[in-house]
Amino acid sequence: MLPVAAIALGFVGVMLVLNPMQEASVFNLAVLVGLAGAVLGGGTKVSIRRMRSSEEPAQRVVFYFALFASVLSVIPAVLYWQPLDAVAYGWLMLLGAFATLAQLLLTAAYGYAPAGQGVGFG
């Protein structure tokens, strides 16, 4: 119960610092979107670290990470899709290859680093 209370108190402090009501009675949704992104990013790192500590191969972790990210990206992609030319598809493939390589290396590193080290650069 104490860790949950500490996390809740930490979020209250973050909300006080971020101040989503920056102008009188105007709610700034971008502040909460940024906070949600940080929480989800942290959750992802913890999940990857736990899967790596259970001797899951890095390739399997990256495959499922990419699978779920792709499934979640379908809705906005369908809603806002713009046609791409051949050059853009080439850059997209190159970006995908480098992103996959980076995710494989990062996932492998999470298996070697202790819990409190190496996370600040992700």
Unreliable spans are none
- Content-based structural category: mainly alpha
Helix content: over 70%
Shape: flat
Query: Could you describe the largest sheet, including whether it forms a barrel?
Result: none
Task: Please give the radius of gyration in angstroms.
Answer: 18 Å
Question: Approximately what portion of the residues adopt beta-strand conformation?
Answer: under 5%
General description of the model:
Helices cover 75% and strands 0% of the residues. By secondary structure, it is mainly alpha-helical. α2 (29-53) packs across α4 (86-112) and α3 packs antiparallel against α4 (86-112). The model has no long low-confidence stretch (mean pLDDT 79).
Q: Which secondary structure elements does this structure contain, and how are they paired or packed?
A:
Blueprint: H1 2-18, H2 29-53, H3 58-80, H4 86-112
Helix pairs in contact: 2-4, 3-4
Question: What does this entry show, briefly?
Answer:
By secondary structure, this protein is mainly alpha-helical. It has helices spanning 2-18, 29-53, 58-80, 86-112.
Distinctive features:
single chain; 0% strand
